[in-house]
Amino acid sequence: AVLYQFPQFLEHCPGETIGTMVPKLCECVETWPEDAQYSAAESLFTMADLSLSGSTSKCMCEAALKLLETCSGRVFEVWGELLCMVLPMLEKTDVLALIGPACKERAVSEQEESRRLAARIIGSLADLLSDSELQEHEFVSIAVKLCDDKDSSVRTMIALSLGSLGSKVSVGIAEKDLWPQLSKLRRDQTDVRTRAQALRGLSKSAEAHKDSAMTCKTFETMIVPEFLAECEQSASVASKDLRTVDNDTYAML
User: Fold this and answer.
1) pLDDT surpassing 90 at residue 147
2) This model's pTM is above 0.90
């Protein structure tokens, strides 16, 4: 009942809620039943739009990482989502000390949900770390390896994250390591969602480096031809009765 009233507590007594309730919740949530753990994460979602202190964000992050070691299913998904929402509020030192090792560990996990979370985290890290830090701490190489994951949902997630990662790193790294992977994922025949996210990621990262279009050879040899081919395909489909178009083709539109 207290968790359901959390938004009201946050509205009427934010100081006490953030300073007292949140740390206590983070301390105890690991011992709660699954339903309460799920509700706790939902309650903390209401804080996503607030400007939280580094200590509060770190407390939530540590609770999420600890719980993710033992939970699964919907509890894993909701706390993984909360973790990614909290990341932008962390101090950079905490990102490198807490999130970096956890991401690397989950990227090689036997559990597909863990590898999918690692792929999601990499997309969030792209907005928090510099180009050199992303390379130094091996997040670029981890992303490249996840592109060949056996599970299509992991490949779909990393395709989405590569859009953010490719926008942040130098055009040289994008051209050498990331764009070839996105081009490969764009031809993934097992899941249309992977192809769609790869196309979106390629477009986003190419847009970020558009000032290099005249000097970067990949724009001429890969990005522009693929863009024109996609435009031609979309135009041919758009001229048809969309009620007769198969789901995969419609998704790519």
Assistant:
1) yes
2) no
- Cβ contacts of 146-151, under 8 Å, gap ≥ 24: 146/107, 146/115, 146/118, 146/119, 146/122, 147/181, 147/184, 147/185, 149/112, 149/115, 149/119, 151/112, 151/115, 151/116
Q: Taking residues 220-248, report their average pLDDT.
A: 79
What is the Cα–Cα distance from 192 to 181, expressed in whole angstroms?
16
d(CA 95, CA 98): 6
